[in-house]
Amino acid sequence: MTNSAHTPHSSTAHQSHMPGWMVFLFACACGLMVANLYYSQPLIGLIAPEIGLSDSAASLIVTLTQIGYCAGLILLVPLGDLVENRKLVIFTICGAILALFIAMLAQNATWFLMGSLLVGIGTVAVQMLIPIAAHISPEEKRGRTVGNIMSGLLLGIMLSRPISSLIAHSFGWRPVFGVSACLLVLLAVILWLLLPIRKPNSHHHYFSLIASLWPLLRDTPILRRRAIYQACLFASFTLFWTISPVLLASPMYSLTQLGIALFALAGAAGALAAPIGGWLADHGHTKIATAGSLLTVAAAFLLSQLGGMGSLPALVIAGILLDLGVQCNVVLGQRAIYSLGAEIRSRLNALYMAIFFAGGAIGSGIASLAYVTGGWSLVAWIGFAFPIGAFIYYLTE
Fold first, then answer.
1. Are residues 233 and 382 in the same domain?
2. Boundaries of domain holding 242
3. How far is CA 308 from each of CA 25, 38, 184, 319, 386, rounded to the nearest angstrom?
4. Residue whose C-alpha is closest to residue 157's, from 114, 135, 126, 122
5. Are 177 and 126 found together in one domain?
6. In terms of pTM, does the model score above 0.85?
7. Is 137 left (phi over 0), alpha (psi -120 to 50) or beta?
8. Per residue in 340-389, pLDDT tens?
């Protein structure tokens, strides 16, 4: 891969390390963008009646956002191996900005659901940024750099729900999308000015690029393995965070929206694991750290059984342990696949993310049914089964 030598933007890729200010910029950018996937989750009860969406169809708000994200991962993120990366990121962010304004101004379900789908598609800009960071970073520091950036992304995931709840509590749900759109406008300008230019050397055209995804998945065992590990852990993650607010609002705890927001903020402490995971990967400890991550998530769900019996401290600690394990493992996986070849890095990242987000969709999809059928106890046992299944697979390495 080559960078244009005549522009100051290109010089960053040739430095001995990724500057600290740029790591911070990437982390903030990833957090701001990925939060758009989750803002609407705690607001469904407010949004659906206003746009004329029935209770039975209200979950489409979340579902279409996730569908859009998965579609963007497969159809847009691989373009990072084909076209100039800075322009690709900016154009995709602009799509997200338009989608957020559509959602904010929507007066009926059709327009809002279309906006939700487009928000998901535009949010994949975050998965275009991370391979750029891997390209800039030298091999010996790549894991730590990606880990630090993933801390921002994971904080965005964890903080999005309480932030949207607090804004909606004071100002209604529409400003949530408007504020996010304005922040992305500012972010797009900053990234346009500061992102390095990176033009991949590729002989593909678009359709052959997309067609190459299946051979990559088929012929890259480490990609399949790391994606399966993370899909199992992310299924547990979404299972826990979809139902825990329901449990906390139940008569057992009777927490208000503010209390549930504070609970989510406590769980965000688990984002500290991402740089730790990157450091362990850089120092050759990926295998043992993977085992630790899988078992930490399993232990979190065993502990969470006490939360189902009325112990709020146990539930808080379980949430922190869960996030620690999930976030450490995602960085270990990215560090491993980013070492496979710079020319296929965007496609590898697209496949990795698409598979593990599919796991997350499974976890959130079965959450309500599990809770209605067997209460928190069944939710916790299912959450325990996912990492244990991944650990059994891990033993075959």
1. yes
2. 212-397
3. 39, 25, 39, 13, 19
4. 126
5. yes
6. no
7. beta
8. 877 788 888 889 988 988 888 788 778 878 888 999 999 999 999 999 99
